């Protein structure tokens, strides 16, 4: 065995020696060549690349995938994102040989459709899901006309004719409507058809919008959604609930802002909202103002939503206007009015005129109150058609500024009522403005014009013509005057009524009657307006004693307010049948329209006040009423008393009055008496209907001589204990039902009690330097002694009140006890100086009777003091009615009053106050 092994070893050495010998004979040995190479396959749906290494004579491999990643596997698998990559393979063997192979790979993974969608990107999966019989394909545009004339790929939808068939796209990126709430697309159809677009699978409720195709080929449709949600599915129905079959094409789906949706309209015609960007407003709206269309800069009030408006800029010239060249005529044959929104911070008249029509031009005026956006309605008495519209802001005026208009459209408005008669004679004065009365009206600082009623769409004044009065601001007493043909007779009439349109509430309206040529012979009555920028009827009662004295009427509007306000008046007339003479006519003795002039009201165990009529309508549309408010905590006999300065007629036994009760059934006790005797006679009537004006009649007996007081006691029940209900009774038009004869006087002697003629006031000149004798009330203002202003001596009393409201006062109470008796005349006098700023300011002087049961009368002097820059003397007189209990004397109060009205103010000093009786 060993020999065998040795022989093998020798043989191997021999072979090796031969090999070495042979190698020494050649230059080099040829080794195998390394060749790098690869191929690959791509999954286009996932971007997965599988590499196949076909290299030769390699031992190791290094892959560079071109995205900063690599591998040493022989056949690696790589998942790519979309893009182009340079892939390099480096191959090595054990002898150190190497080779490199490089190739470029492009990855295009098909994307889900997302906005914008145009069907032209080969790497997008545009195929939607179809349902209910519809089919879909992507084809070349078959009709290169209309809104899509480009050669491109489009989507073809084929309807089978089933209801609600369609397609939906699963969007690769949600459609976020907060970035634009409108979808725009091209649609081809040769049939008029409606399309429904619906958005689903979002973070808000599903939303859908319809649009109509006219069937003319390629058209552009817009779907504006009322949402700001984000949605993942878009569904399209062609003829949704219908059964239209055929092939339709869609293309160029994109998301835009609603503001970018073009308006197809190019004609300027009603309605006009300035939202259509297809209308050339610059050439169609001209005139001599600066006019432009812009986004609403005043988002407030009735026009608070964003949108476009028209801007009118006045330079300050008279009759500046915006002239609308309409493309379609405005036809008033069916709708007789035009309404529009106008923004202004100035109170101005607005004129809207129509021209170039089938009849003569028409125009109407409406007042803007200056409160911002207001809707104005212009009513026309016409059935014609007109091609041009002209708007004047402040027409003949010269107001400069910027104004905005919007939403101009036709509507139906109330038609004014033409006047049927007019009289300027004293016997039946009735100024209705049926004819122009300008030649009969004298202007004393106040311009008068005969004009169309600017505000007749209401229940108070629907007449067509009215009087316009513009104060010139020259004097506080600007007025207008009318001379009559004879003296006025207040035996035949109760007084005047007049409808007034005031730009503000609390404006004083005063009627002064004079004798022509003798202005010192006069009488005045006044009241105040309660309505802002609206009509109301005011009443001015005059006494029979004023008959046959006066033949001139003077009208003051907002007396002592030196301004340039504009007012309108209408139906200025005599009314009623008077309070004197004989006849069978009923006479209203108290209608609350003249601030209780000549009447003193008191409340007992019942709340009460003179107020504006809160429930105008039915049989009572008057401006003012008296309120009696009661509760179950009030005595059954609680009520209201009215003392008549001139007394009542003992012969009158039947009275009637109007009542409005908030409860029913209930009853009313109506009584009359001699004030202070506590011996009334009366009658009870039932109210069976709540919340409605009714008229009750009361028949009385055994009426005492000297009767001068009416008592109205609401809800008296069975006239025991407390009132059975809680409620409110409104009272109006207390009337004497007369069948002839009778005097309106109450009688009574003026003598008795003796007269001292001496001053009953203590410390009336304030010279003690203290408030001795005076009760001082601050009441929201200031009442104090003043040693800087006086009218003799060193001291005076000072009252100050401002626009926060108040009524500071000086009062002396229960003076003249034992010396003052019924029938005497009380004279109150004092010196006054100061300033009064309107609106809302007044100075009152009140006289009270003090009886055993409390105040027996309250009288407010009128005319009132009017403080001026220099000292003047106020004097007022009052005769205490017969039978009045003044056993505890009288009281006098002087107060300065301001309502909480901006600008109101009184600063005044009083001195040398005296009260005497005779």
Automatic annotation (TrEMBL):
It holds the Pfam family CBM_4_9. GO terms for molecular function: hydrolase activity, acting on glycosyl bonds. Residues 741-756 have a biased composition (Gly residues). It comes from Aestuariibaculum sediminum. Residues 60-114 form the PKD domain. This is Carbohydrate binding domain-containing protein. Residues 741-764 are annotated as: Disordered. It comes from the Bacteria. The keyword NADP does not apply. Keywords: Hydrolase. The keyword Hydrolase applies. The lineage of its organism: Bacteria, Pseudomonadati, Bacteroidota, Flavobacteriia, Flavobacteriales.
């Amino acid at each position: 065995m060993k020999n065998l092994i040795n022989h093998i070893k020798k043989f191997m050495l021999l072979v090796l020696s031969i090999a070495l010998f042979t190698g020494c004979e050649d230059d080099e040995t040829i080794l195998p060549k390394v060749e790098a190479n690869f191929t690959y396959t791509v999954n286009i749906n996932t971007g997965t690349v599988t590499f196949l290494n076909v290299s030769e004579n390699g031992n190791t491999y290094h892959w560079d995938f071109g995205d900063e990643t690599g591998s040493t596997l022989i056949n690696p698998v790589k998942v790519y994102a979309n893009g182009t990559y340079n892939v390099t393979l480096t191959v090595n063997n054990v002898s150190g040989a190497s080779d490199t192979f490089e190739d470029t790979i492009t990855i295009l993974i098909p994307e889900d459709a997302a906005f914008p969608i145009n069907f032209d990107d080969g790497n997008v999966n545009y195929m939607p899901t179809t349902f209910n019989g519809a089919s879909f394909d992507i084809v070349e545009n078959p009709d290169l006309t209309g809104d899509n004339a480009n050669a491109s790929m489009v989507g073809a939808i084929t309807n089978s004719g089933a209801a609600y068939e369609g397609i939906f796209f699963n969007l690769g990126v949600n459609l976020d409507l907060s970035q634009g709430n409108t979808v725009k697309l091209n649609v081809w159809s040769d049939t008029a058809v409606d399309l429904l677009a619906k958005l689903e699978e979002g973070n808000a409720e599903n939303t859908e919008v319809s649009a109509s195709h006219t069937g003319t080929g390629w058209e552009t449709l817009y779907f504006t959604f009322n949402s700001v949600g984000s949605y993942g599915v878009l569904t399209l129905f062609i003829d949704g609930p219908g059964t239209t079959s055929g092939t339709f094409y869609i293309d160029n789906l994109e998301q835009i802002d609603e503001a970018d949706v073009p308006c197809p309209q190019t004609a300027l015609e009603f309605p006009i909202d300035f939202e259509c960007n297809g209308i050339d407003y610059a050439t169609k709206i001209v005139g001599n103002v600066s006019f432009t269309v812009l986004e609403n800069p005043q988002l407030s009030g009735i026009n608070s939503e964003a949108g476009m408006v028209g801007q009118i800029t006045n330079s300050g010239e008279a009759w500046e206007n915006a002239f609308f060249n309409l493309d379609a005529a405005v036809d008033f044959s069916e709708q007789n009015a035009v309404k529009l929104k106008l923004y202004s911070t100035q109170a101005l008249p607005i004129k809207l005129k129509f021209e170039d029509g089938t009849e003569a031009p028409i125009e109407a005026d409406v007042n803007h109150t200056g409160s911002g956006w207001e809707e104005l309605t212009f009513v026309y008495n016409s059935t014609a058609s007109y091609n041009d519209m002209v708007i004047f802001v402040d027409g003949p005026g010269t107001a400069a500024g910027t104004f905005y208009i919007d939403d101009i459209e036709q509507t139906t408005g109330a038609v004014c009522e033409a006047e049927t008669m007019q009289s300027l004679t004293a016997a039946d004065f009735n100024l209705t403005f049926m004819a122009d009365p300008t030649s009969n009206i004298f202007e004393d600082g106040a311009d008068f014009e005969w004009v169309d009623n600017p505000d007749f769409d209401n229940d108070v004044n629907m007449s067509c013509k009215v009087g316009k009065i513009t104060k010139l601001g020259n004097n506080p007493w600007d007025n207008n005057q009318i001379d009559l043909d004879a003296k006025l007779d207040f035996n035949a009439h109760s007084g005047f009524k007049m409808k007034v349109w005031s730009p503000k509430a609390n404006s004083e309206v005063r009627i002064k009657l004079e004798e022509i040529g003798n202005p010192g012979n006069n009488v005045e009555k006044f009241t105040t307006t309660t309505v802002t920028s609206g009509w109301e009827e005011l009443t001015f009662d005059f006494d029979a004693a004023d008959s046959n004295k006066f033949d001139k009427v003077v009208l003051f509007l907002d007396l002592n307010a030196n301004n340039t306000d504009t007012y309108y008046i209408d139906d200025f007339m005599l009314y009623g049948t008077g309070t004197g003479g004989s006849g069978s006519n009923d006479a209203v003795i108290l209608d609350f329209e003249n601030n209780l002039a000549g009447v003193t009201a008191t409340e007992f165990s019942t709340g009460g006040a003179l107020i504006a009529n809160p429930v105008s309508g039915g049989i009572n549309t008057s401006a003012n009423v008296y309120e009696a408010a009661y509760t179950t905590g009030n005595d059954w006999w609680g009520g209201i008393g009215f003392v008549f300065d001139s007394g009542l007629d003992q012969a009158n036994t039947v009275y009637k009055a109007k009542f409005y009760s908030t409860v029913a059934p209930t009853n009313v006790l109506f009584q009359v008496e001699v004030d202070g005797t506590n011996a009334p006679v009366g009658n009870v009537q039932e109210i069976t209907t709540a919340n409605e004006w009714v008229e009750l009649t009361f028949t009385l007996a055994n009426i005492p001589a000297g009767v001068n007081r009416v008592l109205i006691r609401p809800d008296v029940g069975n006239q025991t204990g407390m009132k059975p209900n809680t409620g409110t009774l409104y009272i109006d038009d207390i009337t004497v039902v007369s069948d002839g004869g009778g005097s309106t006087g109450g009688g009574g002697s003026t003598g008795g009690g003796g007269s001292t003629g001496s001053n009953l006031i203590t410390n009336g000149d304030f010279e003690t330097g203290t408030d001795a004798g005076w009760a001082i009330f601050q009441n929201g203002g200031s009442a104090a002694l003043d040693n800087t202003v006086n009218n003799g001596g060193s001291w005076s009393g000072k009252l100050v009140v401002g626009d926060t409201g108040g009524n500071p006062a000086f009062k002396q109470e229960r003076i003249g006890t034992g010396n003052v008796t019924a029938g005497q005349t009380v004279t109150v006098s004092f010196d006054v100086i100061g300033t009064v700023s309107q609106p809302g300011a007044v100075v009152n002087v009140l006289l009270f009777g003090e009886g055993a049961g409390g105040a027996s009368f309250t009288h407010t002097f009128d005319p009132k003091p009017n403080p001026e820059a220099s000292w003047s003397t106020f004097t007022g007189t009052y005769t205490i009615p017969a039978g009045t209990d003044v056993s505890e004397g009288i009281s006098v109060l002087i107060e300065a009053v301001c309502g909480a009205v901006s600008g109101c103010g009184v600063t005044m000093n009083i001195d040398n106050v005296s009260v005497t009786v005779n």
